[in-house]
């Protein structure tokens, strides 16, 4: 938006972008220490002398806890912040009681397995009498300790975040504003001076229309960026300041999950945690966590190294649920809530510059997620708490939020903590997956059991270097002429191609039951309750339409978690904001790099409103 627009201006001491677990950890720690017990400020505001610091937090989603997040956690950071924490006070929370890792064989014969894996499957079937084999799956008799969440919690992050939000706001020291996306960071002379909120009353391209309301400028001495793995402010800072030498963000996964009501007579006990691998494709990991009152969260992760142009999480999730090992537990269940979100999985190697003049980064967007232990919430929370302790130290000493001061406080705390020590162990633990699933599993075990001393190599590469075109991928299985015909038929119907291709390769049609096996559209409307308020610009933008015109994979259409990207005229896809769940999958997966930057693809993911309207995930 042009600079001549007059904008309302607010002065604060600290402004936060996003209210995920990282910012919740920050604000929980900060808000408890801003005011003395007698009500006097423990430290003083620079913009409102005599009052405690003015702290504002802006969250994109329409309410606190709307979205998708993790649900099993060791909860070390959470318990440190709430020593008297009692899971009984939070809906859907339960202590972890049982953990299992399960290898799922392919009961259909359609999964894309290597010869080695097929041979391994044949051996397992032959020796089934000697193994803990049940309903086409093997429950591993032993799982490595680094995967364990003993003493941890199964949580609905949505419910937990609502509880934390209420705790923070009850201190009166902090304001949290949901439904308020931050459009950009304000940067002057390499210093972040605050944020600009998103304009309202604009058309799809962001041009002012009737009822135009320019987003306010919030000026603050410190901007805390906790906007997650696809946050536009994090992206802006990466573009402005670059990444540290050798760092990149080429590893990610799309996570898609259901929250379901299990049958009343379910044998699954609250606190049960199941992790699966092997099916529907060897690269896809699954999870099932049991909450109290016959409710479960379940879903899959589709990782960046899954080299197929038909990487549709929704369809794969439905096949995964129907695996006999899981179906015996899920049959008769009913969908309550649904959603999708991507995870930044580059960890320590994806870490941006964590601090600079006037800003600090926390949470997954700061590279905190640990891919070896499968844990993001605890780490995100802890980085936020570490920043809060550092901010209080600087405020008390009346030292400004310069890069150097933040390095001497926040960076120092973070580097000395368990988050850093464990991130170092995990840093290269999944590199083996770049060259195959079995190699990847061995690499993970090696890294975990040797505390990161030994790993298997395999340099992560960006998607355009690894995802073949549809014709290349299906060569030998579907003739090119038939693919062309299917493509035309799907374009006429306005649907994506992956369903037709998967069916052609032996994946059975989904037997919709209107309860658990529902169409993608029903999941959007009933499960995710997806909405988009009018008057905002499109947040998904195809940067160079000419790249789309000649793009052979159109993977953005095939993988879109909300069916929000559909075939468009002249080969440039259409984006429908009203169906977008803000998962960010298109941002990571687009198969064409933009001119001049081989690390960034042809989709911009900007600040936007709407998305999921459920706090159960
Ligand atoms: C399906 C799935 C399952 C998972 N399972 C687990 C698990 O079992 N255990 C575990 O520990 N971790 C799990 N994770 C990972 C975990 O959810 C993340 O690591 C964690 O949520 C990161 O917290 P965060 O605060 O850094 O970011 P986020 O949780 O992504 O929060 C960022 C917040 O910023 C907001 N935001 C973004 N842009 C803007 C903007 N421009 N303006 C205002 N607000 C903005 C977003 O709406 C969001 O609320 C899972 C993730 C997924 C997707
Ligand atoms: S957005 Fe990316 S994946 Fe989609 S058509 Fe354009 S270039 Fe291809
Ligand atoms: S358009 Fe929206 S729902 Fe579709 S992949 Fe992109 S962010 Fe996810």
Concise account of the structure shown:
By secondary structure, the chain is an alpha+beta fold.
> Which class of secondary structure composition applies to the elements?
alpha+beta
Percentage of residues in strands: 15-25%
Q: Say which molecules are bound, naming each kind only once.
A: flavin-adenine dinucleotide, iron/sulfur cluster
The number of E-state strands comes to: 27
> What is the arithmetic mean of pLDDT?
94
Instruction: Label the overall shape.
Output: globular
Distance between the termini: 35 Å
Residue share in helix: 25-40%
Gyration radius (Cα, Å) is 24 Å
List low-confidence stretches: none
Number of helices: 19
Question: How is the main sheet built?
Answer: 8 strands, mixed
Folded structure, characterized:
With 617 residues, the chain is of the alpha+beta class. Strands 1, 2, 9, 10, 11, 14, 20 and 21 form an 8-stranded mixed beta sheet that branches. Strands 6-7-5-16-17-18-15-19 form an 8-stranded mixed beta sheet. Helix 1 (21-31) packs parallel to helix 4 (157-170). The longest helix has 20 residues, at 377-396. It is globular, with a radius of gyration of 24 Å. The protein starts with 8 loop residues before the first strand and ends in a 12-residue tail after the last strand. 52% of the residues are buried. The model has no long low-confidence stretch (mean pLDDT 94). The chain binds flavin-adenine dinucleotide (FAD) and iron/sulfur cluster (2 copies).
